Amino acid sequence: MRQVLSLSLPMQVTKEIKSLSKKKGFVSVSGYVRHLVESDHDTISDKELWKHIKQGRKEYKEGKCIVAKSMADLLK
User: Fold this and answer.
1) Residues 4-30: pLDDT tens digits?
2) Do 68 and 74 meet the contact criterion of CB atoms below 8 Å apart?
3) Domain extents for the chain?
4) Are the C-beta atoms of 8 and 15 separated by less than 8 Å?
5) S-S: 48 plus which of 9, 24, 44, 59, CB 3.0-4.6 Å?
6) Residues 6+ apart with CB under 8 A from 65
7) Stated pTM of the model
8) CA distance 56 to 18
């Protein structure tokens, strides 16, 4: 079931959203907004990013890192 969501945005923002949705090949602004919401689910928070950075630093200090000359070396 679909529902209508109304947004109040400045005219310039509305124009930009319509332009971007068209440039990116979306049939409608709704499709573009759905894409943005779905993309947001894949984005980690600042807090989670810092957690990963701190863990990486800790592992680096403990010598738990791989020294590689190339990406191919990492995949071996």
Assistant:
1) 999 999 999 999 999 999 999 999 999
2) yes
3) 11-74
4) no
5) 44
6) 59
7) 0.61
8) 41
